[in-house]
Amino acid sequence: MTRHRTPSLLNEEATMPAQPWFRPDRNVRHPDGDSVQAAHISSMNKASSSTFDPAAPSVAGMSLLSAGPARQVGVEVEFTGLRASAAARALQAGLGGHLVQEDPHAFSVHGSRLGDLSVQLDVRYVHPQAHNASLPLRMGRWSAALLGHVLAGFVPRELILSPLPVQRLAEVDGAVAILREAGARGRGRTRFGSLGLHFNIGLFRLDVTTILAFLRAFLLLEPWLRRETAGEVGRAMFMPGSFPRTYVRQVMAPDYRPDLVAFTDDYLRANPTRDRALDLLPVLQHFDEARVRARLPYEKIGSRPALHYRLPRAFVGEPGWSMMPAWNRWLAVERLAEDPNRLAALSSAYLRFDGSENAWLQLAQVHNGTG
After folding, report:
1. Is the pTM of this model over 0.85?
2. Any idea where the domains of the chain sit in the sequence?
3. I want to staple 347 with a disulfide (CB 3.0 to 4.6 A). Which of 107, 135, 155, 252 is the partner?
4. How confident is the model at residue 104 (pLDDT cuts 50, 70, 90)?
């Protein structure tokens, strides 16, 4: 492996002991193409036990697993092969709760063992009661219902779980197994796009300083995250768009310390889209809906006090598939975000680096003792 040296690696910070925040399993290699082999499932599940050590100390006093009731994560999983109504009934039968029809293509289960959840056809236009205000073309209930019946054979359904304590995330795999047994399908993508797995990640503190630290950490690790995710999907064409290079450099600058208004304006100017792997539009809209909607009046944004981490990699139809390896990789971002010294060192290294994305990935690994 070629080791790329920069001035940031020649100072005393380069001799700092490696921290357990970046541990890619280099033995995991996923086959290209559409098939997801049994070895692929096995290697993903092995990664879940080796990527994150919950007993490891928290650098900044912000424990990843014991931050109290505010530390919660919501999950969204897309699938095909099963109508929303049938999926909701299967989840109610398996998890308990009270079934409610919101519209012909959206159903909720209240009070299940995993809390409140919903299943819906993933098209805003067929849910006018929930989305009409943010749509350029508004439809009546009858027209929306008809459109949903036409699109049901092509558009995925989405399971949406309300935020759970982070300690219970693994239980979501049980809900996915219920859907699979009821006939849900999904192998990462359809002929029209990806089948997404999304995490809505509650923060330790909801302020611009914390959001900026998480954004910096994510941007530094995004090449690794994209490589791992693209390998599982089998192709990179359905990956969310990358953050503009100029914006990344702006964020990495040590003197970039905006207030919330300036941070929001900078983000919207550079990223007027939800097509980012770490989508900050929901949390920015939570803070200032008028400012976000003035720039993006019709974008699909669900306001929430959380980071929206989007992966094109849901394999609901594959027996043994788990979402936990993806979550464990995200925890590498958290470890870096809560280590200000290492975050500053890698940010400085990035600003001094002039090479390819793959070269930066190698550089980050070498800098942290993983190369």
Report:
1. no
2. 36-74+203-305+321-367
3. 252
4. confident
